[in-house]
Amino acid sequence: MDDARWLAAAAALAARARPASRPNPGVGAVLVKHGKVVARGWTQPGGRPHAEAMALAAAGDAARGATLYVTLEPCAHQSPRGPACADLVCASGVARIVIGCMDPDPRTSGAGLARIHAAGIAAEYLPSPTCARSLSGYLISRCLGRPEVTLKLALSLDGCIAIASGESQWITGPQARAHTHAMRAKADAILVGGGTLRADTPRLDVRLPGLEDRSPQRWVLTRGDVPEGWNRLPSPQAIAGMEGIQYLFVEGGAGAASAFLRAGLVDRLLIYRAPILIGGRPALADFGLTSLRDAHGQWRLAERRQLGSDTLEVYETSHSSEQPLER
């Protein structure tokens, strides 16, 4: 129970690294001795130093005899930007290390754990869904060759995203909109459809005090030309070519949302429901289904919370939350 609790604490620290750590994963680490935290660390902007290096440097000699909890297996490969974390662990004097996820990177993939074990340190892999959730973008990009895709929908009770004329500002209230901006700040890239870009010319930035510099890259789903400062994605399937992007946030509209769902490329759904009825434009375009047996996905409700008068529901697919992915 204590191991799982400390791994969850490390996963919470990892959230501080996202998305500034790209192209490296956002990792969290906690050093514990006699039931007390000795030091903490998370991946720094640009990917270095790694979480383990930060925690061990902060602890100094106090690391001796401690247990290191880390969300991802320490890297086993040398880099011009720093030593392998597995070597740092071996030299640190820690008595034990507990790892929440194995690293699918072939340069490490078990080698980090083996090297630490060979140094006489008790090294354990304790599969942690919480750690896997914190690393979902990295695991999906490594194992599936694409970013994790989160689709956001702001709906009325009757499932509409705009009134019949197209007006949609604002269906949800200020607390839901602030939450959306917080989600933007965790993404590497944000995408809308070509119709939404032409109709609304959205800024897609982060407008929360202190997080303005976290605005993600702007992408549009189109085969045509794009304005300056935007990136073009010709089709949902082309996200395997979004180099360095681990977390993609899709904000709509109905055509883009349906295109990603139809392609089976949505890992998480964020549905903000406002307590209003508008009888307007539906949230999703026609899927082309001919039978309910072909209904999309099997979604698991992962979270529900109240945001002012609005309700947020978070749905996940099985591979985005339950078990770490395998190559």
Overview of this protein structure:
- With 327 residues, the chain is of the alpha/beta class.
- The protein is built from 9 helices and 15 strands.
- It is 24% helix and 24% strand.
- An 8-stranded mixed beta sheet has the order 10-9-8-11-6-12-15-14. A 5-stranded mixed beta sheet has the order 2-1-3-4-5, with helices on both faces. The protein has a two-stranded antiparallel sheet with strand order 7-13.
Helix content: 10-25%
Q: How many extended strands?
A: 15
Name the beta content range.
Answer: 15-25%
Specify the number of helices: 9
Report the average pLDDT across residues.
88
Alpha-beta classification: alpha/beta
Rounded to the nearest angstrom, the distance between the terminal CA atoms is 29 Å
Q: Which strand order spans the largest sheet, edge to edge or round the barrel?
A: 10-9-8-11-6-12-15-14
- What characterizes the major β-sheet? 8 strands, mixed
Can you write the helix and strand succession as a string?
Answer: HEEHEHEHEHHEEHEHEEEHEEEE
Topology:
Elements: H1 2-14, E1 28-33, E2 36-42, H2 51-59, E3 67-70, H3 85-92, E4 96-99, H4 111-118, E5 122-125, H5 129-134, H6 136-144, E6 148-155, E7 160-162, H7 174-184, E8 189-193, H8 194-200, E9 217-221, E10 231-233, E11 247-252, H9 254-262, E12 268-273, E13 281-282, E14 300-307, E15 310-316
Parallel strand pairs: 3-4, 4-5, 6-11, 6-12, 8-9, 8-11, 9-10
Antiparallel strand pairs: 1-2, 1-3, 7-13, 12-15, 14-15
